[in-house]
Amino acid sequence: MTTDGKLEFVQMHIWRQDTRIKVFFPYNSPNNKPDFDSILLNWDSKSLILGYFNAPSTRWGYMATSCIGSIFENLIDSNPIDFIENEENSPTFLSYSGGVTHPNLLLTHPTFSDRAQHKLIDRAGGAGHKILLLSIVKYRPSYREPRRTYWNLKKANWTIFKNLTNEVLTDYLIMPNFEYTSRFFTLAVLKCASICVPRGQQKKYTPVWK
Description:
Largest sheet: 5 strands, mixed
């Protein structure tokens, strides 16, 4: 389209589990002054724009900013929209005569800015538009230290514990091998305790030494 105030785009919804991501793929013909109202009406925190804009601006590597480039700069400055440069920080188009330009842009909502990875893939033969590869990195869940399970000594059955330890330990405590005896003693006491002393992660279960 070449009529001022128009913008041609395709809107796609991409689902990741229960999250819907809106992706707009616009094409702005040379010298067209685009109207972004249709996109902005549907813009939210899960939105991206990946398009061919023909909008020279010093922000993305041109020597000067054109009238169309100023419109795009104003779009970014006046709305919750960030420009994401490709990782190579390089032009997206290479003409057959050797000239380079940056007509392809990635714009995202700020919630995606630190998660968007924007790479370029060269075309076979080199010249023409490079392939833009966009990846949204999923935040890893923060590591949570497992809560220690405490012995609830107040609810222990000490009668059974006494009987079990007497039964298990009597014959081994008189053995001459001290190292083996101490190791066996520790394991036996813990095994008896696991039977007679309840454990849990409840907050009211506090160490007996506190």
